[in-house]
Specification:
heterodimer; A: alpha+beta; Elongation Factor Tu (Ef-tu), domain 3; 6-stranded mixed β-sheet; 17% helix; B: OB fold (Dihydrolipoamide Acetyltransferase, E2P); 6-stranded antiparallel β-sheet; 3-stranded antiparallel β-sheet
Amino acid sequence: MEQEIRKTALHSWHTSHGANMADFGGYEMPLWYSSAKDEHLSVLQNAGLFDTSHMAVLLVTGPDAHGLLQLCFSNNLDACVGLAKKPLSPGRCVYGAYLNEDGTVIDDSIVNKLAEDEYMVVVNAGMGGRVAEHLGAHQGDRDVAITDLTDKVGKIDVQGPMAGKIMQKVLAAPEVVLEKMPYFSFKGHFVESSPLADAVRLGNGTPILLSRTGYTGEFGFEIFVELAHAVDAWEMIHAAGQDFGLKACGLAARDSLRGGAVLPLSHQDIGDWPFINHPWPFALPFNAAQTEFTKPFIGDKALLGAESADYTYAFVGADLRKVSTADPALVIDAQDNQLGSVLTCVTDMGIGMHEGKVVSIASPDMPEGFAPRGLCCGFVKVTAPLTPGTVVQLKDNRRKLKVTIVEDVRPDRTARRPIKEML
Amino acid sequence: MTKEINDLNLPDDVRYTEDHEWAKQEADGIKVGITDYAQDQLGDIVFVELPEAGDTFDKGEQFGTLESVKAVSEMFMPISGEVVSVNEALADTPELVNSEPYGGGWMIVFKPSDAGAIDALMDKAAYMDTLKGLE
C-alpha cells in the first residue's frame, strides 16, 4: 500500500528557504538548502540546525516499563552509564537496539529515563509503530503502557562547537540548565503538565526536553518540543545562531557527518543480520571480558552463538571519491576475491590526509594552510575478520577505490567535550 | 527541486542534450558542460574526473564523472569526436560547475567527427519542454 508522504511542522520553513527536498523514511525532508558541503563544514566549525521531527518517539510507562525494556532493548539499563557502568538514572539516556530472536535488528534507539517507571524511547522515522508493536508483543502480563508521541512532538538538533553559546541565547535560565550536563544526559520535558517541564524553558516560556546527544559526532543538543511550538523554537534558535555562524542543515550533511563520526544508519549499517561484530559494542551489555552479556534479552543467544556472523568495520579512503552502494558496491582484496559489501560510502568534507594521517579542519593542530577536500568513509560488512590498517578495495560499476579499515575516521570530534569548555 | 524551471539559467546560444549537458560551437571545437538544471539537482560538485586531450569517444559514450555530495554521475558525449582540451581548473575548483555551469565550469572541448551533428541537439525551447516533462 502506497502511503502518502508526510511533512514535518517545519516543512514550509524548509521550502521557503530554498531546501532541496526528498523522501526519507516516509517524510519529505530537506536534503540541503544551498550547499551540503557548507552545511557539513558549519557543524564542524560553528553550528548546524537540523529538523529531525521525522524521528519517532514512544513513551513507555508503568511499574514494569523497566522490565519490558530490559527484555527488548539490547543495552543493560542497570549497567550502562559511564565507564563504571552505573544504572540508568532519571536524566540519563543510552543507545541500543531492538532485536529479533535471531539477533537481527528491528531498529536502533536512544532510551531516555524520565523518571522511575517512565521512559522516552526515540527510534527512526516511520519505526514508531513497528517498535511499539514489538514491545507490545513481548509485554505479556506486564503492567506497561506504550504511547506513540510521534505526531505530537517536533525534534530539532543544534550541533556544532557553538551550539552551547547559541542555547545560552535562547534558554530562559541558561546558567542553570547548562550547568553539569554530561554527554548522554537530558533535562526538562516538552509537555507543560510534566513535573519536569520547569527544568528547561525557552525564552518565550516554551518547555523543551533538551538532550546532550546528536548524530554528528560534534558537541550539541537534541531538542524535543511540542508540535505547536516547533516552528517558533526553530526560528528563535536560527535567529540566535546567526551571530555564531549557524546554518540550517539538511539530511545530506547529517549523513556525511555521521559517517565521519562512525555512527550507524539503521536499516543500512545495521539491519537484517545479527547485531554483533560491529564498531558499536557499547550498544550491547557485554561483561568486562566481552565474552558474556550481563543480562538476558531478546536476541542474546543468537548473538553469542552466531559463529558465522559477518563483521562490520569503518573505513576511510585516500581521497574524496565514493562508490555507489546502489550498484551495489563490493569489497574485494588485491586478488579480486570478494570479501563482502559496502554498507555506507559518504564523503566527510571536513577531513583530509596529511602526512599519512587523517586531519580535520577542526583539529587544534591543523597544519598551516591545510585545506582538506574531504575523504570518503563509511562501513563495510565482510565475512571474515579484518584488522585496522588493512587495505581493501571497494568496487562498483564505475571504479575501484583503495580504502583502509579503521577504528575511527574524523579526529578531534567535540561531542564528548565537557560542556563548561563549550560555553 | 530548488530552482523552478523559470528560474533556471538556460542560455539561447548553446545546444542541449537529454543528459542535461550543453554544447556550444567555438573556434577550436565544441565545448561541453552540464546545465544549470543538472548542477542544481546534483548539489555541490566536489570532484570532476575528465578524459585527456587526444581521447576519442563515440556519441553517448561516457567521457567523465561528476562527484557531488549526494552521488556520482556520468557525463556522456553529445556527439562522437576527439577531445582537444579539458578544463584543468576543475581539479582544484570543482565548485565552478555549480557557480558558473556555462562559464568557468565547462568540461571539455572536442573536435566532432561530423561537424553538422551539433544542429541535431535540442535548442532551448525543446530542452525546456524536456524539463517540464520531468516535473
